[in-house]
Amino acid sequence: MNTHLTPFGAAADRSAAPDRTSADAAVHVMILMAVHEGAATLEDQLESLSTQRHPNWSLLVSVDGAKDGSDRIIDAFAARMAPRGHTVRRIAGPQAGSARNFMHLTAAAAQYMTDETWLAFSDQDDVWLPERISNGLETLLTGTAETPALHCSRTWITDAQLGNRRLSVARPRQPGFSNALVQNIVAGNTILLNPAGGQLICAAAQETTMAGSFPVAHDWWIYQIVTGCGGWIAHDDRPALFYRQHDANEVGANDGMRAKLRRIGMILDGTYRDWNRRNIQVLRISAHRFRPERRAMLEHFAAALDAPLARRLRGLSDLGVYRQGRLSDLALWVAAILGRL
Question: What residue spans define the domains of the chain?
Fold first, then answer.
């Protein structure tokens, strides 16, 4: 089941879910944070975790090197949080880029989880709003526990000093696997997974890490895995955090016309073509977990990308792939015609 939220957070379809209106304070949320030379902004982010309205959380941090003292900042935070009942753990990262650090972190998280643990993902340089966790819990607790579920949301995009705030782009179309195959709409710094979703993602991360194959981006991969397995995606129009834009961002916000044109250019210049094939390779490692029809969709998508023009267009049309915006959707089909998808 996929659910899209209105600007007021009301679910479009909760017919299969019990009526619950508030988050359960007993729910334990493990926050996963990947860090690489984050000292300049790390203390602000950690402080925002400490002010979350949801009281029951722990933090697992994977540090890709600590030349700037990030490790000392984390250890000091751990000491401050221990008397308040929050466990903060620090592990060494693989030092191979953001996506691999997050995959390493997700695979490692399994040893610290119980069957009831929820997972939230965090960047090192944002500032969370106090309701970041509680909004997600309130939404996902309306679902069935057996179904993998993911909550994500819009953000306040800011400059490095948290000024010039603007709301990230809306996602007007329903989330789903046909969208996930060709576009990521899940901001990794806003992800919250219920226990079924967390266990699914950790198991899949262990598989891909052992295989030595890694996705383009961990959040896009999570969106694909959850929807491939028939999970529930709740995209919330309520912003969850302040998302800093600065020179060190590995992936920036995609909200202005210049950014949109740059992303469309990446579709047309073949960058997305390379990304799609890399994603397919990684998804096949865990496709045995997919619903049969989604596994078949993945293979049909792979076949369509390399088919002659007429079969390519027919195959993509039959799959119903789509992107969220009109201009982006048009670029998708132009790329398909040009063989750049």
Answer: 3-17+26-244, 257-338
Looking at residue 161, its pLDDT comes to 93
Tokens found for residue 279: 């994603």
Check whether 13 has a pLDDT greater than 60: no
pLDDT tens-digit profile of 54-83? 999 999 999 998 789 999 999 999 999 999
From 64, 62, 58, select the one nearest 78 (Cα to Cα): 58
For the entire predicted model, the pTM comes to 0.91
Q: Which CATH number fits domain 3-17+26-244: 3.40.50.300, 3.90.180.10, 3.90.550.10, 3.40.630.30?
A: 3.90.550.10
* 3 state SS for the chain: CCEEECCCCCECCCCCCCCCCCCCCCCCEEEEEEECCCHHHHHHHHHHHHCCCCCCEEEEEEECCCCCCHHHHHHHHHHHHHHHCCCEEEEECCCCCHHHHHHHHHHHHHHHCCCCCEEEEECCCCEECCCHHHHHHHHHCCCCCCCCEEEEECCEEECCCCCCCEECCCCCCCCCHHHHCCCCCCCHHHCEECHHHHHHHHHHHHHHHHHCCCCCCHHHHHHHHHHHCCCEEEEECCCCEEEECCCCCCCCCCCCHHHHHHHHHHHHCCHHHHHHHHHHHHHHHHHHHCCHHHHHHHHHHHHHHCCCHHHHHHHHHHHCCCCCCHHHHHHHHHHHHHCCC
How does pLDDT run across 205-223, given as a tens digit for each residue? 999 999 999 999 999 999 9
Q: What is the mean pLDDT of the chain?
A: 90
pLDDT higher at 245 or 205 = 205
